[in-house]
Amino acid sequence: MLLFALGLMAGSRWVSPAMLLSVMEGGSDLLTRISVVELRLPRNLLGILGGAALGVAGAVMQGVTRNPLASPGLTGVIASAALAVVALRTFSTPAALWLPSVALAGGLFGGALTFAIAGRRQLQPERVVLAGIAVTALATALTMGILLVSGSEAAELYYWLAGSLMGRGWLQLQMVLPWLLLPLVALLVMRRPFQLLQLDDDLALAMGLAVGRWRLIFLTLALLLAVSLVAFTGPIVFIGLVAPHIAKRIIGNQIQHWLPLSALFGALLLLTADILARQLAFPQEVPVGMLTALIGAPWLIYLLNSRPTPRSA
Predict the structure, then answer these.
(1) Average model confidence (pLDDT) for the chain?
(2) Which domains does the chain have, with CATH numbers?
(3) How far apart are CA 240 and CA 117, in angstroms?
(4) What is the DSSP letter of 210?
(5) What is the DSSP letter of 38?
(6) Are 239 and 55 in contact (CB under 8 A)?
């Protein structure tokens, strides 16, 4: 709540707590009301909802694959979704409603390619990360190639690729809301099958769970969350990696709380990064994707270095 209030006050024109309270009561001047209600309020809501979606998507991918390094940004999903959107916007003039569908198709292809390269049966964390890096590099190279021929849209697409919530208002929130809210609620409700997927496959099967079917359902919903946000904000990486790990360290073995707490920390991380993005290079605005990468990259290095080495017999 404090971060949300700070997000309503922060910007090129700071709003004092007294002025913010006046706006909430229907008073204050027109410029302040527009800044708070039309610009910052939908941006805050999108930051909270998008961060929660990324946090849950990361937790689901880590949980159902039993891979602590799995996340949308490290499995080629986000880069592939961005490639699909950039290609569509360069070679056609699509309606905004098509963007989530195209991003989903690109993200699904990138994720499937990553897991195919890593090996379907033995998804060791390091192999998945290396395969994800390869797919991300390929998608990024193709995206840069397309940008070379994108003409006047290149500058706008370059900034979009950095990931940002700037300029996102009620229209963008309204368009992305069903794509994020429905799968997010579905994942938070389906706690029992998610808990059973943390067990060994044979044990889960013995308890009556169709492991393959449920794993596919969870991964599809997680990918839908990640790529739908990409379609409207650009690639925002590492929140899906960091938020689930923070939540897991707090809850320990209480898996039933993992997804809700991952959603909470994802929302807090993205909202914090967005507030910092408005202030660090004032009067310019830093892309929020750059800040999340600065947070997530050291965390990834820590995770890779803290993995225990297998003991010799």
Answers:
(1) 86
(2) 2-304 (1.10.3470.10)
(3) 21
(4) -
(5) I
(6) yes
**CA 226/CA 135 separation, integer angstroms:** 16
What separation in angstroms does the CA of 67 have from each of 61, 180, 308?
A: 8, 24, 14
Q: Which residues have C-beta within 8 Å of that of residue 63, sequence separation ≥ 6?
A: 194, 197, 198, 218, 255, 258
The residues, ordered by sequence, that sit 6+ positions from 239 with a Cβ below 8 Å of its Cβ are 51, 54, 55, 58, 266, 269, 270, 292, 296
pLDDT at 311: 43
Q: Which residues contact 244 (CB under 8 A, 6 or more apart)?
A: 55, 58, 59, 62, 71, 258, 262
Q: What is the pLDDT of residues 23-74, one digit of tens each?
A: 888 877 888 888 898 989 999 999 999 999 999 999 998 988 888 878 888 8
The CA-atom distances, in angstroms, between 158 and each of 47, 49, 154, 175 are 21, 24, 6, 22
Query: What's the chain's length in residues?
Result: 313
H-helix segments, the chain: 2-9, 17-24, 30-33, 41-65, 77-91, 99-118, 125-148, 154-161, 170-189, 191-197, 201-206, 211-233, 239-251, 258-279, 288-306
Q: Give the pTM.
A: 0.86
pLDDT at 120 over 80: no
CA 7/CA 186 separation, integer angstroms: 28
